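Exercise 4. Each item below gives a protein and its sequence. For each, produce the structure-token representation.

Item: PAS sensor protein (Pelosinus fermentans B4).
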Amino acid sequence: MKILIVVPYLSVAEFIKTIIQEQDDKEWEYEILVNIGVRSIVSQDIKSDVVIARGVTASALKRFLPNTPVVDLLISGYDILRSVKECLVRFQDRKIGIVGSYDMICGAKSIESIMDIELVTVEVNNEDDAELSIAKLKEDGIQTVIGGVMSSDIARRIGMNSLFIESGREGVYFALQEAKRVAAVRRQEQERTEQFRAILNYSDEGIIAVDTQGKINLMNMAAIHITSLDNEVIGRNVRDLLPQLDLGKVLVTGKSEIGEVQTVGDQQIAINTVPILIAGETVGVVATFKPVGAIQELEGKIREKIHNRGHVAKLKFEDILGSSKAIKETISVAREFSQVNSNVLIVGETGTGKEVFAQSIHNGSNRCKGPFVAVNCAALPENLLESELFGYVEGAFTGASRGGKFGLFELAHRGTILLDEVSEISPKMQGRLLRVLQEREIMRLGGDRVIPIDVRIIAATNKDLYDLVKQGVFREDLYYRLDILQLSIPALRERGEDIMLLMNHFYKRYCIKNKKECKKMNQEAKAKLLQYSWLGNVRELKNIAERLAVLSKNSCVDLQEVEAVLPNREKAAKDAIRSNGSLDRECLYRALEETNYHYGKAAAKLGISRTTLWKRLKQFDEIK
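Answer:
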């Protein structure tokens, strides 16, 4: 940074250079101007961070350079004392006039008692004042004047004794230190001002600040653009220009207004208004606002990024394989469902492709550009499922992520959420889910802010929900909220003509994937596959196809190889009973799953009575 020093004589300049050299501060640039008038300095437009001058010159520069700090090279008491002593020696005059700026003459009178002399001080700030004041001193009988260069020259010109007050080392040192401090502070203030200006002008939010009278004292470019006002708004009352914003309400109440929506011109804006408080008193208001359309556009970009994080449906109706009447009718119904926004309940046995249909419905809907979020309700414990679905705020519970977390319902905004195995949701969670369906809003765990959501819900289950309602384990009101449009996925055994079509498709895929030879399948092998019950449906068929691709050793896939990869469930269940002497939970659950939770069929499969099955289930808390 640069310091400009204005001095009256070359000898003073040399003296100051010596002090600067002693300080050896290379971070600063110095320029010294000798015997140059104030108007010359201003006309030359000399650039510097701070100016050092003294006396009347300093006072004049402060008026002519309002944007540049001017530091006074002060005349200390020691400087005046030295000058008075020299006058006594040189002129033997004990009545002396001291002429200069206030800073120069301040405290000079105290020297009278010390040196037994009479001192008359006169404050002057320009040449005209100095001429009259010094002439008046001469009329009053004063023959000797001490002052700056201008005062000394005037006194000499009208026949008076004069002495120029020299600045001492300590005065120069303190002036240099003060100049550096002032320049550094000013530079920091300029940097902060530029940062503030950049924030204001490059913010895409409109910003308006008003004082206690409602007069605008700040308005950024975004605000001018959004409101279509001109640049000449500073000092005008906001009530006259933008009465819709109602900033006066916050001025009166001193309370913030957050998230209000107002209409300005032909667009809606979302506005936050907060008071400016000093010592608890409202001294103004700041309003920030943004067009609702811009917020929606930004939200769309955020949703697009969510797509890139994996919340996207990849499958379409064209990906569903099958030529049977049953599957074609199901696809036709699902296409109809995709054209509306009603909730869908997809019912089907394990492995029938419920998520495939859910993704296809989403991709066939007007929400296809929004996120598709799938959650398996049976895979997570209740507390974890709750935090995943609804999110949480920071500090909601031990281990909560810093800053909180978005819930899956929030991530699915403007899209679809699939609640797979919805029958496994606990009664507490059923209550929270019902509220989401009714109010279309959620609240994060530990939070107190209601968040509106626009989400289509597709629920999927392999159980009879109405039967669970009758048993009292599933809420009836929730059931009717979910079961608006019901889609039943046919089991694979109900679409027998699709079995070999699917088998050939997946067998070929897994042969290619595992770099195996794709062999033909003889008629006996095909007949066995067609006769098989396929309790695991398409998922099980895919597993069998992969086993055949990996394990087949013969020249063609024959009956023996098919039988080798097909499970014998009935034998496995009975062997478990004989070996354990009782049924474990896994056996019960597997039998129920394979019979689509038909208790009579499951009991027959296990070789026990229906009553025994119910007793075992109660032991394992499968029913309440």
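Check: Residues 548 and 564 are 9 Å apart (CA to CA).
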